[in-house]
Amino acid sequence: MEDTPIKYTQKEYEEAIAKSGEEKYILRLYITGITPKSTKAILNVKKICEESLKGRYELEVIDIYQQPVLAKDQQIIAAPTLIKKLPLPLRRIIGDMSDKERILVGLDLRPKK
C-alpha cells in the first residue's frame, strides 16, 4: 500500500494555521522551595510564556516540598521540571529552564534542529 499525502484546500490549511495559534497551553512547573534555582526557573518560564504564548497559557507552580503527593503522582524525580499537559503530546523539560531554545522546542513552539 502506498502512502499518499493528505491534501488540503487553501481554506482548510488557513483554518489549521489559525487554530494552531489559539491553542491553550496548560503547564506545570515543579520546583523545590524558594531557592535561587527555583526562582530563576519560574522567572525564565514566565518570560518565555509571555513572549511566545501571551494570553494562551496557564502556568501552575508546584513546590514539591509543600505538595509532595502531586510530585509523586507525576513521578517527578528532579526539579525544576516543566510539564506541558496540553496541547498534547505531553512533554517534560527538566533543568534550570535557562535554555530558551530548548524550552521552545520542548513546548513544540519550534521544530528541532
Q: How do the helices and strands line up, and which of them pair or pack?
A:
Elements: H1 10-20, E1 25-31, H2 36-53, E2 57-63, H3 68-73, E3 81-86, E4 91-94, H4 100-106
Parallel strand pairs: 1-2
Antiparallel strand pairs: 1-3, 3-4
Radius of gyration: 17 Å
State the helicity in percent bands. 25-40%
Spatially, the strands of the biggest sheet line up as: 2-1-3-4
Q: What are the low-pLDDT stretches, counting only 5+ consecutive residues below 50? A: 1-5
Q: Can you tell me the CATH superfamily? A: Glutaredoxin
Tally of DSSP β-strands: 4
Query: Span from first to last CA?
Result: 31 Å
CATH class category label = Alpha Beta
| Tally of structural domains | 1
Write down the overall geometry. globular
Query: What's the helix count?
Result: 4
Q: What's the story with the biggest beta sheet?
A: 4 strands, mixed
CATH architecture classification: 3-Layer(aba) Sandwich
Could you tell me the strand content as a percent range?
15-25%
> What's the quaternary structure here?
single chain
Arithmetic mean pLDDT: 86
CATH topology: Glutaredoxin
The topology string of helices and strands comes to: HEHEHEEH
Secondary-structure-based class equals: alpha+beta
